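Readers of this paper often ask what the protein records in our data store actually look like. Such a record has a labelled line for the sequence and another for the backbone structure tokens. Nothing more is needed to write down the fold, since each code stands for a local backbone conformation. The remainder of this section carries one protein's record, kept here as part of the documentation.
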Amino acid sequence: MAAEYPAMTNYLYCTYNGAEHDLTFDDNGTMVLGCGPYHIGSSVEFDWCAVSAIRTLREMGKKTIVVNHNPETVSTDFDECDRLYFDELSLERVLDIYQLENSTGVIISVGGQIPNNLALPLHNNGVNVLGTSPLDIDAAESRARFSAILDDIGVGQAPWRSLTSLDDALDFAASVGYPCLLRPSFVLSGSAMNVVYDPEEMKAFLKAATELSQEHPVVITKFVEGAREVEMDAVARNGVVVAHAVSEHVENAGVHSGDATLIMPAQTLTNQQVDKIYEITRKIASRFSISGPLNMQFLVTDDNIMVIELNLRASRTCPFVSKTIGTDLVKVATKVMVGAELDLKELPTLETPHNPVDYVGIKAPMFSWPRLRDADPLLRCEMSSTGEVACFAPDVHTAFLKSLISAGFKLPPKGGNIMIGIQQSFQPAFLPTAKKLHDLGYKLCATEATAEYLNKHNIPADIVGWPASDNTCENVGIATKLIQEKAIDLVINLPNNNTKYVQDNYMIRRMSIDSQTPLVTNFQIAKLLTESLAKEDQMRPDSLFHYQKRATV
């Protein structure tokens, strides 16, 4: 480590200007590539995975070499590994270190997308990449090649096409109908991924996706509205799944998995749907000869299950599901990648899942909207969250409330004021939720059309005025002013692509953020929150350790 005196820590730096090395290279350790700088899409969850891999290697008596250049991570603590190179995660630098150390192999699948994108370049330069073949990783990362493989092995997916031009995209949309989803390849956190509702959006979003993914064709798929999203985190060995965990999103598909609220065990899947997910997982693990971690996302409708994507690396949900089931999936994956023995009787295989039976885990996202001036706090396909929390309780409702509170969400007080604004198409589905809020004693107010609809169904709601557009009702409070004056305890704002008052709704959402008023912009979250508020008095300060300790007694 650079200093004016000899340092005993293991921090190492590469330089082009030195004449000799400060140490010898005879350990032949195993390299682990970290997550790099923290940013939206790559944060502490990937560092947890890297640290778990490092500790597992050291438990097995193997020397460890970490390459990472983020001082905020645990993986860059001086006592976590044998040698730490505080250098960039570039092909040139990783090759330098690999050759200097004469490493036995490199683990690239526990640090997120940045090291995962180095798989094929490292392989092409003779590096021993441990785990799943880089050729298979590359095939999974390419949207077009992956979709073609799914067709080949008979696994369902939404209708798709590899695009060559704007005309090609417009022709596809005309064939299957809007909305469609544009998906670039080799990206993290859904960068430039967008749902498209008309030709004008197609032109703008396709340009952005093409600029981000210039070397690979952009894939367009039919966007399946109203589908639930399910995640499979697993570990396979030589194409056979040896450990797994299934979790479910609260939000319908269309919200990035990093922004979604996850529930484990899944609450709405039937036994037949779970069996179908297992069948697809077996097929894909075998086809890609997976040896290491994997993450798959599924679209689930009443009569169909379709694959969204496959990540041949540890995912950001891996820490949450590992803690929930009590089995460290990264530890299992690390043993697989270095060829260590496994005790399958102790692992959550597809035949013997380890789903908790007396508690539910919920992972909730955290956002930094107050620090992002003028940003619209709507959730989309591109990730926005900057953190997450996980909470546990005997049932999904109290676990959900605990997770919201832990994420900084302030629950409305009993008898508090709730402002509602919902696009017309949401009104019939939202009606039971509005009635439940009224029955719980909350006072409702709503924008004009929403208030008229609620009152027509005997749900009392005062009218509030739009902040920018003309209001037909006089002498009503303006929505943004009421929020600013702290007269509102919760804002539920549910727009969609058909929303007429785009600017007004944005101003309401933004004022909620700037005034630190709790805001909900997703229908499924609003529904679950309303159901959960009825159980607010049942919350208990029990942790995961409480439930897992009780299960072993």
Residues 387 and 432 are 32 Å apart (CA to CA). The chain has 18 helices and 21 strands. The mean pLDDT is 90. The longest helix spans residues 271-287.
